[in-house]
Design brief:
Elements lengths: L6 E5 L9 H12 L8 E5 L8 H11 L3 E4 L5 H18 L7 E6 L2 H5 L1 H5 L5 E6 L1 H7 L11 H14 L2 E4 L8 H14 L3 E2 L5 H10 L3 H19 L5 E3 L2 E3 L1 H17 L4
Parallel strand pairs: 1-2, 2-3, 3-4, 4-5, 5-6, 6-7
Antiparallel strand pairs: 8-9
Bound molecules: (3S)-citryl-Coenzyme A and magnesium ion (MG).
Protein backbone atom coordinates (compact mmCIF):
# COMPACT_ATOMS: atom_id res chain seq x y z
CA UNK A 1 0.00 0.00 0.00
CA UNK A 2 2.89 2.35 0.75
CA UNK A 3 4.13 1.81 -2.82
CA UNK A 4 0.66 2.41 -4.37
CA UNK A 5 0.52 -0.59 -6.73
CA UNK A 6 -2.40 -0.79 -9.20
CA UNK A 7 -3.21 -4.24 -7.83
CA UNK A 8 -1.73 -6.85 -5.53
CA UNK A 9 -1.04 -10.33 -6.84
CA UNK A 10 -0.72 -13.30 -4.50
CA UNK A 11 1.13 -16.24 -6.02
CA UNK A 12 0.23 -19.84 -5.28
CA UNK A 13 2.10 -21.25 -8.28
CA UNK A 14 5.83 -21.18 -8.97
CA UNK A 15 6.87 -18.92 -6.06
CA UNK A 16 5.51 -21.54 -3.63
CA UNK A 17 7.33 -24.83 -3.03
CA UNK A 18 5.35 -28.08 -3.28
CA UNK A 19 5.56 -28.59 0.49
CA UNK A 20 4.05 -25.16 1.17
CA UNK A 21 1.11 -25.25 -1.25
CA UNK A 22 -1.58 -25.91 1.39
CA UNK A 23 -0.15 -23.40 3.87
CA UNK A 24 0.12 -20.70 1.20
CA UNK A 25 -3.50 -21.28 0.12
CA UNK A 26 -4.73 -20.87 3.71
CA UNK A 27 -2.63 -17.73 4.19
CA UNK A 28 -3.99 -16.19 0.98
CA UNK A 29 -7.56 -17.10 1.94
CA UNK A 30 -7.19 -15.25 5.25
CA UNK A 31 -5.36 -12.31 3.70
CA UNK A 32 -8.14 -11.81 1.12
CA UNK A 33 -10.74 -11.78 3.87
CA UNK A 34 -8.91 -8.95 5.68
CA UNK A 35 -10.45 -5.44 5.39
CA UNK A 36 -7.00 -4.10 4.42
CA UNK A 37 -7.49 -5.53 0.93
CA UNK A 38 -11.00 -4.11 0.43
CA UNK A 39 -9.88 -1.01 -1.47
CA UNK A 40 -7.28 -2.53 -3.75
CA UNK A 41 -7.69 -4.92 -6.66
CA UNK A 42 -6.59 -8.41 -5.60
CA UNK A 43 -5.32 -11.00 -8.09
CA UNK A 44 -4.36 -14.57 -7.22
CA UNK A 45 -2.24 -16.73 -9.47
CA UNK A 46 -3.54 -20.24 -8.84
CA UNK A 47 -1.85 -23.47 -9.88
CA UNK A 48 -2.96 -24.94 -13.22
CA UNK A 49 -6.15 -27.00 -12.93
CA UNK A 50 -4.21 -30.01 -14.26
CA UNK A 51 -2.21 -30.12 -10.98
CA UNK A 52 -3.51 -31.51 -7.66
CA UNK A 53 -3.61 -27.93 -6.27
CA UNK A 54 -5.43 -25.90 -8.93
CA UNK A 55 -9.03 -26.65 -8.00
CA UNK A 56 -8.37 -26.32 -4.26
CA UNK A 57 -6.78 -22.93 -4.93
CA UNK A 58 -9.76 -21.82 -7.01
CA UNK A 59 -12.30 -22.95 -4.36
CA UNK A 60 -10.44 -20.92 -1.74
CA UNK A 61 -9.82 -17.73 -3.67
CA UNK A 62 -13.28 -17.37 -5.24
CA UNK A 63 -14.89 -17.92 -1.82
CA UNK A 64 -12.52 -15.41 -0.24
CA UNK A 65 -13.55 -12.77 -2.78
CA UNK A 66 -10.47 -12.35 -5.00
CA UNK A 67 -11.21 -9.83 -7.74
CA UNK A 68 -9.20 -11.63 -10.42
CA UNK A 69 -7.88 -15.18 -10.89
CA UNK A 70 -4.70 -15.40 -12.93
CA UNK A 71 -4.50 -18.70 -14.77
CA UNK A 72 -0.87 -19.62 -15.52
CA UNK A 73 0.19 -21.60 -18.57
CA UNK A 74 -2.97 -20.93 -20.57
CA UNK A 75 -2.58 -22.81 -23.84
CA UNK A 76 -6.10 -22.91 -25.33
CA UNK A 77 -9.58 -21.40 -24.88
CA UNK A 78 -10.59 -24.78 -23.36
CA UNK A 79 -8.34 -23.98 -20.36
CA UNK A 80 -10.44 -20.85 -19.78
CA UNK A 81 -13.77 -22.65 -20.39
CA UNK A 82 -12.84 -25.24 -17.76
CA UNK A 83 -11.85 -22.49 -15.31
CA UNK A 84 -15.05 -20.51 -15.98
CA UNK A 85 -17.29 -23.51 -15.37
CA UNK A 86 -15.68 -24.10 -11.98
CA UNK A 87 -15.79 -20.41 -11.05
CA UNK A 88 -19.51 -20.20 -11.86
CA UNK A 89 -20.24 -23.29 -9.76
CA UNK A 90 -18.26 -21.91 -6.81
CA UNK A 91 -19.83 -18.44 -7.10
CA UNK A 92 -23.31 -20.01 -6.96
CA UNK A 93 -22.33 -22.27 -4.05
CA UNK A 94 -20.96 -19.42 -1.92
CA UNK A 95 -23.52 -16.78 -2.86
CA UNK A 96 -21.12 -14.59 -4.80
CA UNK A 97 -22.62 -12.73 -7.76
CA UNK A 98 -22.18 -14.88 -10.89
CA UNK A 99 -19.65 -13.21 -13.20
CA UNK A 100 -18.05 -11.06 -10.48
CA UNK A 101 -14.81 -13.07 -10.41
CA UNK A 102 -12.66 -11.82 -13.29
CA UNK A 103 -9.89 -13.75 -15.05
CA UNK A 104 -6.44 -12.95 -16.41
CA UNK A 105 -4.81 -15.53 -18.70
CA UNK A 106 -1.05 -15.89 -18.58
CA UNK A 107 0.41 -17.09 -21.85
CA UNK A 108 3.67 -18.97 -21.33
CA UNK A 109 4.17 -21.27 -24.35
CA UNK A 110 4.40 -21.30 -28.14
CA UNK A 111 0.93 -22.87 -28.43
CA UNK A 112 -0.45 -20.20 -26.07
CA UNK A 113 1.00 -17.45 -28.26
CA UNK A 114 -0.38 -19.10 -31.41
CA UNK A 115 -3.83 -19.28 -29.74
CA UNK A 116 -3.63 -15.80 -28.19
CA UNK A 117 -6.49 -14.31 -30.23
CA UNK A 118 -8.86 -17.21 -29.48
CA UNK A 119 -7.91 -17.11 -25.80
CA UNK A 120 -8.32 -13.34 -25.49
CA UNK A 121 -11.77 -13.39 -27.09
CA UNK A 122 -13.19 -16.48 -25.38
CA UNK A 123 -14.74 -15.12 -22.18
CA UNK A 124 -16.42 -11.97 -20.85
CA UNK A 125 -14.65 -12.64 -17.55
CA UNK A 126 -11.24 -11.94 -19.12
CA UNK A 127 -9.89 -8.51 -18.18
CA UNK A 128 -6.48 -9.07 -19.71
CA UNK A 129 -3.80 -11.41 -20.98
CA UNK A 130 -0.23 -11.47 -19.75
CA UNK A 131 2.90 -12.77 -21.39
CA UNK A 132 5.11 -14.84 -19.07
CA UNK A 133 8.62 -14.97 -20.44
CA UNK A 134 10.52 -17.54 -18.44
CA UNK A 135 8.36 -20.53 -19.28
CA UNK A 136 7.90 -19.19 -22.81
CA UNK A 137 11.64 -18.96 -23.61
CA UNK A 138 12.13 -22.49 -22.28
CA UNK A 139 9.41 -23.72 -24.59
CA UNK A 140 11.06 -21.82 -27.46
CA UNK A 141 14.46 -23.39 -26.66
CA UNK A 142 16.05 -19.99 -26.09
CA UNK A 143 16.74 -17.73 -23.11
CA UNK A 144 15.88 -14.26 -21.78
CA UNK A 145 18.04 -11.58 -23.41
CA UNK A 146 17.53 -8.13 -24.89
CA UNK A 147 13.95 -8.84 -25.93
CA UNK A 148 14.67 -10.21 -29.41
CA UNK A 149 13.52 -13.59 -28.10
CA UNK A 150 10.11 -12.07 -27.17
CA UNK A 151 9.59 -10.03 -30.34
CA UNK A 152 6.90 -12.21 -31.93
CA UNK A 153 5.18 -13.16 -28.66
CA UNK A 154 4.85 -9.54 -27.52
CA UNK A 155 3.35 -8.49 -30.87
CA UNK A 156 0.97 -11.47 -30.88
CA UNK A 157 -0.24 -11.05 -27.29
CA UNK A 158 -0.68 -7.31 -27.71
CA UNK A 159 -2.67 -7.65 -30.95
CA UNK A 160 -4.83 -10.39 -29.41
CA UNK A 161 -5.65 -8.20 -26.42
CA UNK A 162 -6.49 -5.21 -28.58
CA UNK A 163 -8.66 -7.30 -30.92
CA UNK A 164 -10.55 -8.54 -27.84
CA UNK A 165 -10.76 -5.12 -26.18
CA UNK A 166 -8.91 -6.23 -23.04
CA UNK A 167 -5.64 -5.27 -21.37
CA UNK A 168 -2.18 -6.61 -22.27
CA UNK A 169 0.50 -7.06 -19.61
CA UNK A 170 4.17 -7.55 -20.32
CA UNK A 171 6.60 -9.99 -18.67
CA UNK A 172 8.28 -9.72 -15.25
CA UNK A 173 11.79 -8.23 -15.14
CA UNK A 174 13.77 -10.48 -12.86
CA UNK A 175 16.95 -8.47 -12.10
CA UNK A 176 15.57 -6.11 -9.49
CA UNK A 177 18.93 -4.33 -9.10
CA UNK A 178 19.19 -3.48 -12.81
CA UNK A 179 17.14 -0.28 -12.86
CA UNK A 180 18.48 0.87 -16.23
CA UNK A 181 17.63 -2.46 -17.88
CA UNK A 182 14.16 -2.40 -16.35
CA UNK A 183 13.53 1.14 -17.64
CA UNK A 184 14.75 0.21 -21.14
CA UNK A 185 12.27 -2.67 -21.22
CA UNK A 186 9.47 -0.46 -19.87
CA UNK A 187 10.13 2.17 -22.54
CA UNK A 188 9.87 -0.50 -25.24
CA UNK A 189 6.61 -2.01 -24.02
CA UNK A 190 5.05 1.40 -23.33
CA UNK A 191 5.79 2.46 -26.90
CA UNK A 192 4.41 -0.85 -28.22
CA UNK A 193 1.15 -0.20 -26.41
CA UNK A 194 1.11 -2.59 -23.42
CA UNK A 195 -1.08 -1.49 -20.51
CA UNK A 196 1.63 -2.37 -18.03
CA UNK A 197 3.77 -5.11 -16.66
CA UNK A 198 3.69 -7.82 -14.01
CA UNK A 199 6.12 -6.78 -11.25
CA UNK A 200 7.98 -8.87 -8.70
CA UNK A 201 9.41 -6.26 -6.33
CA UNK A 202 8.05 -3.06 -4.74
CA UNK A 203 11.06 -1.09 -6.02
CA UNK A 204 9.74 -1.55 -9.57
CA UNK A 205 6.34 0.08 -8.94
CA UNK A 206 7.27 3.75 -8.88
CA UNK A 207 9.69 3.31 -11.80
CA UNK A 208 6.89 1.84 -13.90
CA UNK A 209 4.33 4.45 -12.87
CA UNK A 210 6.72 7.31 -13.64
CA UNK A 211 7.56 5.86 -17.04
CA UNK A 212 3.87 5.50 -17.90
CA UNK A 213 2.85 8.94 -16.64
CA UNK A 214 2.79 11.44 -19.52
CA UNK A 215 5.45 14.16 -19.33
CA UNK A 216 4.47 17.75 -18.48
CA UNK A 217 5.20 18.57 -22.14
CA UNK A 218 2.74 15.86 -23.30
CA UNK A 219 0.09 17.18 -20.92
CA UNK A 220 0.54 20.82 -22.00
CA UNK A 221 0.33 19.81 -25.67
CA UNK A 222 -2.81 17.71 -25.01
CA UNK A 223 -4.47 20.75 -23.38
CA UNK A 224 -3.58 22.86 -26.45
CA UNK A 225 -5.00 20.18 -28.79
CA UNK A 226 -8.30 20.03 -26.85
CA UNK A 227 -8.55 23.83 -26.79
CA UNK A 228 -7.86 24.03 -30.54
CA UNK A 229 -10.40 21.26 -31.21
CA UNK A 230 -13.06 23.09 -29.19
CA UNK A 231 -12.41 26.27 -31.10
CA UNK A 232 -12.52 24.35 -34.39
CA UNK A 233 -15.88 22.90 -33.41
CA UNK A 234 -17.25 26.33 -32.57
CA UNK A 235 -16.17 27.46 -36.06
CA UNK A 236 -17.63 24.33 -37.69
CA UNK A 237 -14.24 22.91 -38.87
CA UNK A 238 -13.57 19.13 -39.13
CA UNK A 239 -9.80 19.36 -39.52
CA UNK A 240 -7.76 22.12 -37.91
CA UNK A 241 -4.12 23.03 -37.68
CA UNK A 242 -2.06 23.65 -34.53
CA UNK A 243 1.36 25.16 -35.25
CA UNK A 244 1.21 23.60 -38.73
CA UNK A 245 0.24 20.12 -37.49
CA UNK A 246 -3.02 18.49 -38.57
CA UNK A 247 -5.47 17.97 -35.70
CA UNK A 248 -8.37 15.61 -36.36
CA UNK A 249 -10.41 12.90 -34.58
CA UNK A 250 -7.68 10.38 -33.63
CA UNK A 251 -5.29 13.15 -32.49
CA UNK A 252 -8.02 14.64 -30.28
CA UNK A 253 -8.82 11.17 -28.85
CA UNK A 254 -5.12 10.66 -28.11
CA UNK A 255 -4.96 14.01 -26.31
CA UNK A 256 -7.90 12.90 -24.15
CA UNK A 257 -6.10 9.62 -23.33
CA UNK A 258 -2.96 11.57 -22.34
CA UNK A 259 -5.02 13.73 -19.95
CA UNK A 260 -6.79 10.66 -18.48
CA UNK A 261 -3.40 8.95 -17.93
CA UNK A 262 -1.97 12.11 -16.36
CA UNK A 263 -4.88 12.32 -13.98
CA UNK A 264 -4.74 8.56 -13.19
CA UNK A 265 -1.02 8.84 -12.47
CA UNK A 266 -1.75 11.47 -9.83
CA UNK A 267 1.51 13.07 -10.93
CA UNK A 268 0.45 15.68 -13.48
CA UNK A 269 -2.77 17.34 -14.62
C1 LIG B 1 12.95 -11.04 -6.23
C2 LIG B 1 12.96 -11.12 -4.73
C3 LIG B 1 13.39 -12.55 -4.30
C4 LIG B 1 13.98 -10.11 -4.17
O1 LIG B 1 13.99 -10.17 -2.76
P1 LIG B 1 14.82 -9.18 -1.87
O2 LIG B 1 14.62 -9.55 -0.47
O3 LIG B 1 16.21 -9.08 -2.41
O4 LIG B 1 14.06 -7.79 -2.15
P2 LIG B 1 14.20 -6.39 -1.43
O5 LIG B 1 13.98 -5.35 -2.46
O6 LIG B 1 15.46 -6.31 -0.64
O7 LIG B 1 12.97 -6.33 -0.44
C5 LIG B 1 12.63 -5.13 0.24
C6 LIG B 1 11.34 -5.26 0.98
O8 LIG B 1 10.27 -5.53 0.06
C7 LIG B 1 9.65 -6.76 0.37
N1 LIG B 1 9.28 -7.45 -0.92
C8 LIG B 1 10.15 -7.92 -1.80
N2 LIG B 1 9.47 -8.44 -2.82
C9 LIG B 1 8.15 -8.25 -2.53
C10 LIG B 1 6.97 -8.59 -3.21
N3 LIG B 1 6.98 -9.22 -4.40
N4 LIG B 1 5.80 -8.26 -2.67
C11 LIG B 1 5.75 -7.63 -1.49
N5 LIG B 1 6.87 -7.28 -0.78
C12 LIG B 1 8.04 -7.61 -1.31
C13 LIG B 1 10.69 -7.55 1.17
O9 LIG B 1 10.07 -8.50 1.99
C14 LIG B 1 11.35 -6.43 1.96
O10 LIG B 1 10.48 -6.06 3.03
P3 LIG B 1 11.07 -5.60 4.44
O11 LIG B 1 11.88 -6.76 4.96
O12 LIG B 1 9.83 -5.32 5.25
O13 LIG B 1 11.88 -4.39 4.16
C15 LIG B 1 11.58 -10.76 -4.14
O14 LIG B 1 11.27 -9.46 -4.50
C16 LIG B 1 10.48 -11.74 -4.53
O15 LIG B 1 10.39 -12.82 -4.02
N6 LIG B 1 9.57 -11.32 -5.43
C17 LIG B 1 8.43 -12.10 -5.86
C18 LIG B 1 8.86 -13.17 -6.83
C19 LIG B 1 7.65 -13.72 -7.52
O16 LIG B 1 6.55 -13.23 -7.37
N7 LIG B 1 7.81 -14.78 -8.35
C20 LIG B 1 6.75 -15.41 -9.02
C21 LIG B 1 6.30 -14.65 -10.24
S1 LIG B 1 7.44 -14.62 -11.59
C22 LIG B 1 7.28 -16.20 -12.34
O17 LIG B 1 6.76 -17.08 -11.78
C23 LIG B 1 7.81 -16.41 -13.74
C24 LIG B 1 6.65 -16.40 -14.73
O18 LIG B 1 5.71 -17.39 -14.46
C25 LIG B 1 6.11 -15.03 -14.69
C26 LIG B 1 4.70 -14.69 -14.99
O19 LIG B 1 3.78 -15.50 -14.91
O20 LIG B 1 4.51 -13.50 -15.35
C27 LIG B 1 7.25 -16.73 -16.11
O21 LIG B 1 7.07 -17.86 -16.56
O22 LIG B 1 7.89 -15.85 -16.68
MG1 LIG C 1 5.75 -19.16 -15.46
Amino acid sequence: FIYRPDSIMFDLEDAVSLREKDTARILVFHALSHPMYRDIETVVRINPLSTPFGLKDLEAVVRAGADVVRLPKTDTPDDIFELEAHIERIEKACGREVGSTKVMAAIESAIGVINAVAIARCSPRLIGIALAAFDYVMDMQTERGDGTELFYARCAVLHAARAAGIDAFDVVYSDINDEAGFLREVELIRKMGFNGKSLINPRQIELLHNAYAPTQEDVDYAHRVIAAAEEGERNGLGVISLNGKMIDGPIINHAQVVLERASASGIRR
